[in-house]
Protein backbone atom coordinates (compact mmCIF):
# COMPACT_ATOMS: atom_id res chain seq x y z
CA UNK A 1 0.00 0.00 0.00
CA UNK A 2 1.28 3.47 -0.84
CA UNK A 3 0.58 6.70 1.05
CA UNK A 4 1.54 10.24 0.08
CA UNK A 5 2.24 12.59 2.99
CA UNK A 6 4.06 15.81 3.80
CA UNK A 7 5.09 14.37 7.17
CA UNK A 8 7.68 11.83 6.00
CA UNK A 9 10.39 13.27 8.27
CA UNK A 10 8.15 13.13 11.33
CA UNK A 11 7.24 9.51 10.54
CA UNK A 12 10.74 8.34 9.70
CA UNK A 13 12.05 9.86 12.94
CA UNK A 14 9.89 7.39 14.90
CA UNK A 15 9.89 4.65 12.26
CA UNK A 16 10.85 1.76 14.55
CA UNK A 17 8.29 2.68 17.19
CA UNK A 18 5.55 3.00 14.53
CA UNK A 19 6.47 -0.27 12.82
CA UNK A 20 6.43 -2.15 16.12
CA UNK A 21 3.13 -0.66 17.35
CA UNK A 22 1.26 -1.12 14.04
CA UNK A 23 2.95 -4.38 12.95
CA UNK A 24 3.93 -2.93 9.57
CA UNK A 25 7.08 -2.16 7.59
CA UNK A 26 7.62 1.38 6.27
CA UNK A 27 9.89 2.53 3.49
CA UNK A 28 10.05 6.08 2.14
CA UNK A 29 10.86 7.60 -1.22
CA UNK A 30 10.24 11.34 -1.41
CA UNK A 31 6.73 12.06 -0.17
CA UNK A 32 5.64 8.46 -0.74
CA UNK A 33 5.52 5.87 2.00
CA UNK A 34 5.33 2.20 1.15
CA UNK A 35 3.46 0.25 3.83
CA UNK A 36 3.61 -3.53 4.11
CA UNK A 37 1.88 -5.67 6.69
CA UNK A 38 -1.26 -7.60 7.50
CA UNK A 39 -4.62 -6.08 6.53
CA UNK A 40 -5.48 -4.96 10.06
CA UNK A 41 -2.07 -3.27 10.40
CA UNK A 42 -2.55 -1.50 7.08
CA UNK A 43 -6.07 -0.38 8.04
CA UNK A 44 -4.89 1.06 11.36
CA UNK A 45 -1.90 2.65 9.62
CA UNK A 46 -4.26 4.51 7.24
CA UNK A 47 -5.98 6.08 10.25
CA UNK A 48 -2.61 6.69 11.90
CA UNK A 49 -1.23 8.56 8.88
CA UNK A 50 -4.44 10.58 8.50
CA UNK A 51 -4.13 11.54 12.17
CA UNK A 52 -0.50 12.61 11.60
CA UNK A 53 -1.56 14.70 8.58
CA UNK A 54 -4.27 16.31 10.74
CA UNK A 55 -1.59 17.51 13.15
CA UNK A 56 -1.58 14.92 15.94
CA UNK A 57 1.77 13.91 17.41
CA UNK A 58 3.11 10.43 16.75
CA UNK A 59 2.56 9.57 20.43
CA UNK A 60 -1.15 10.45 20.29
CA UNK A 61 -1.71 8.91 16.84
CA UNK A 62 -0.18 5.64 18.09
CA UNK A 63 -3.09 5.34 20.54
CA UNK A 64 -5.01 4.08 17.50
CA UNK A 65 -3.02 0.84 17.73
CA UNK A 66 -5.05 0.16 20.88
CA UNK A 67 -8.50 -1.20 19.96
CA UNK A 68 -10.15 0.96 22.64
CA UNK A 69 -9.29 4.12 20.70
CA UNK A 70 -11.11 5.40 17.63
CA UNK A 71 -10.39 8.09 15.08
CA UNK A 72 -13.20 10.29 13.77
CA UNK A 73 -13.24 13.05 11.19
CA UNK A 74 -16.11 15.53 11.11
CA UNK A 75 -16.67 17.91 8.23
CA UNK A 76 -17.70 21.32 9.54
CA UNK A 77 -19.77 21.80 6.36
CA UNK A 78 -22.03 18.88 7.37
CA UNK A 79 -23.25 20.76 10.44
CA UNK A 80 -23.81 24.29 9.13
CA UNK A 81 -25.13 26.20 6.15
CA UNK A 82 -22.86 29.17 6.92
CA UNK A 83 -20.46 30.24 4.22
CA UNK A 84 -17.95 31.78 6.63
CA UNK A 85 -16.26 28.68 8.05
CA UNK A 86 -13.41 30.80 9.45
CA UNK A 87 -15.82 32.11 12.09
CA UNK A 88 -16.87 28.56 13.02
CA UNK A 89 -13.27 27.33 13.23
CA UNK A 90 -12.52 30.33 15.47
CA UNK A 91 -15.44 29.38 17.75
CA UNK A 92 -14.12 25.80 17.97
CA UNK A 93 -10.58 26.90 18.75
CA UNK A 94 -11.48 29.78 21.07
CA UNK A 95 -9.27 32.55 22.38
CA UNK A 96 -5.70 31.21 22.59
CA UNK A 97 -7.05 27.67 21.98
CA UNK A 98 -9.01 27.60 25.22
CA UNK A 99 -12.25 26.21 23.78
CA UNK A 100 -10.48 23.30 22.07
CA UNK A 101 -8.43 22.59 25.20
CA UNK A 102 -11.52 22.57 27.42
CA UNK A 103 -13.34 20.30 24.97
CA UNK A 104 -10.38 17.91 25.11
CA UNK A 105 -10.22 18.00 28.90
CA UNK A 106 -13.96 17.54 29.48
CA UNK A 107 -14.47 14.89 26.79
CA UNK A 108 -11.27 12.94 27.45
CA UNK A 109 -10.42 13.05 23.74
CA UNK A 110 -7.71 14.66 21.63
CA UNK A 111 -9.06 17.20 19.13
CA UNK A 112 -7.48 18.95 16.15
CA UNK A 113 -9.06 21.42 13.76
CA UNK A 114 -7.49 21.37 10.30
CA UNK A 115 -8.92 22.98 7.17
CA UNK A 116 -12.69 22.41 7.35
CA UNK A 117 -12.49 19.26 9.44
CA UNK A 118 -12.42 18.40 13.11
CA UNK A 119 -10.38 15.30 13.97
CA UNK A 120 -10.94 13.41 17.21
CA UNK A 121 -8.99 10.57 18.83
CA UNK A 122 -10.41 8.99 21.94
CA UNK A 123 -11.99 6.01 23.61
CA UNK A 124 -15.23 4.79 22.05
CA UNK A 125 -17.38 5.93 24.98
CA UNK A 126 -15.80 9.43 24.94
CA UNK A 127 -15.87 10.00 21.18
CA UNK A 128 -19.66 10.29 21.05
CA UNK A 129 -19.72 13.09 23.61
CA UNK A 130 -16.86 14.91 21.89
CA UNK A 131 -18.60 14.67 18.49
CA UNK A 132 -21.89 15.92 19.94
CA UNK A 133 -20.11 18.83 21.62
CA UNK A 134 -18.28 19.85 18.46
CA UNK A 135 -21.54 19.66 16.48
CA UNK A 136 -23.30 21.85 19.06
CA UNK A 137 -20.62 24.54 18.86
CA UNK A 138 -20.66 24.46 15.04
CA UNK A 139 -24.44 24.86 15.12
CA UNK A 140 -24.16 27.92 17.36
CA UNK A 141 -24.62 26.72 20.93
CA UNK A 142 -22.84 28.75 23.60
CA UNK A 143 -19.53 27.26 24.67
CA UNK A 144 -20.61 27.39 28.33
CA UNK A 145 -23.70 25.28 27.51
CA UNK A 146 -21.52 22.72 25.76
CA UNK A 147 -19.11 22.57 28.71
CA UNK A 148 -22.06 21.99 31.05
CA UNK A 149 -23.29 19.19 28.75
CA UNK A 150 -19.86 17.52 28.82
CA UNK A 151 -19.58 17.82 32.60
CA UNK A 152 -23.02 16.25 32.96
CA UNK A 153 -22.08 13.40 30.60
CA UNK A 154 -18.84 12.81 32.47
CA UNK A 155 -20.73 12.66 35.77
CA UNK A 156 -23.22 10.17 34.27
CA UNK A 157 -20.36 7.97 33.01
CA UNK A 158 -18.66 7.98 36.40
CA UNK A 159 -21.94 7.19 38.17
CA UNK A 160 -22.54 4.24 35.80
CA UNK A 161 -19.00 3.02 36.41
CA UNK A 162 -19.83 1.07 39.65
CA UNK A 163 -16.13 1.21 40.51
CA UNK A 164 -15.23 -1.40 37.89
CA UNK A 165 -13.28 0.82 35.50
CA UNK A 166 -9.54 1.28 35.93
CA UNK A 167 -8.76 4.95 36.41
The second-level CATH architecture of the largest domain is 2-Layer Sandwich
Low-confidence stretches: none
- Oligomeric state of this protein: single chain
H/E series: EHHEEHHEHHEEHH
Number of domains: 2
Q: What is the highest CATH level, the class of the largest domain?
A: Alpha Beta
Spatial arrangement of strands, main beta sheet: 1-3-2
Question: Brief description of this entry?
Answer:
With 167 residues, this protein is of the alpha+beta class.
Sequence-ordered SSE layout with sheet pairings:
Blueprint: E1 2-4, H1 8-13, H2 15-22, E2 24-29, E3 32-37, H3 39-54, H4 58-61, E4 69-75, H5 85-93, H6 98-107, E5 110-114, E6 117-123, H7 124-138, H8 143-160
Antiparallel strand pairs: 1-3, 2-3, 4-6, 5-6
Could you characterize the architecture of this molecule?
Helix content is 51%, strand content 20%. The chain has 167 residues and is of the alpha+beta class. It folds into two domains: 2-65; 69-160, Ribosomal Protein S8, Chain: A, domain 1 (2-Layer Sandwich), CATH 3.30.1370. Helix 6 (98-107) runs parallel beside helix 8 (143-160) and helix 7 packs antiparallel against helix 8 (143-160). The radius of gyration is 17 Å and the shape is globular.
Search tags:
globular; Ribosomal Protein S8, Chain: A, domain 1; 6 strands; 51% helix; alpha+beta; 3-stranded antiparallel beta sheet; 8 helices; 167 residues; 2 domains
Amino acid sequence: MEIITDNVRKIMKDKQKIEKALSIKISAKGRKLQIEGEQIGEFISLQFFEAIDAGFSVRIALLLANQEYLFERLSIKNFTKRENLTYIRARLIGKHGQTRELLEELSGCFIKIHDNYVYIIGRAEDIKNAMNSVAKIIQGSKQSSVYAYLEKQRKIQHDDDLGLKIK
